[in-house]
Amino acid sequence: MNINSTLFLQAVVFAILVWFTMKFVWPPITKALDERAQKIADGLAAADKAKSELSSANKRVEAELATSRTETAARLADADRRGQGIIEEAKARAVEEANKIIAAAQAEAGQQTVKAREALREQVALLAVKGAEQILRKEVNAGVHADLLSRLKTEL
Prior knowledge:
Layout: H1 3-136, H2 146-155
């Protein structure tokens, strides 16, 4: 064999190999590569879509949190106002009750003062009668001198 014929034969075999590869091997490989590129592009698009959805979800969450914070602050302020109102009402009731107790105590003290004065008048009248008995050296009849004793009580 001649080198030229070997070289020519190798060129023909190479050309057949190139034609076979272009006809039968290359299209499935390009198809697989195209499908792979499409899957990657779809994945990237889905990732971008998920990223934007996550961003909008985060914004909604932040808005809900802000709403709940303001609502919570309003409820706390309302509860504080109610608490202050209850405290003020309890203070007013306590002051009113204290005033009633003071008034009752003053009335009772006044009644006891009157009773004490009456008892003191009775005792002074008895002492005056005993003193008069001592001075006159005779018994003073309370029944006979009732008018005199009642005038003495009113004067005291």
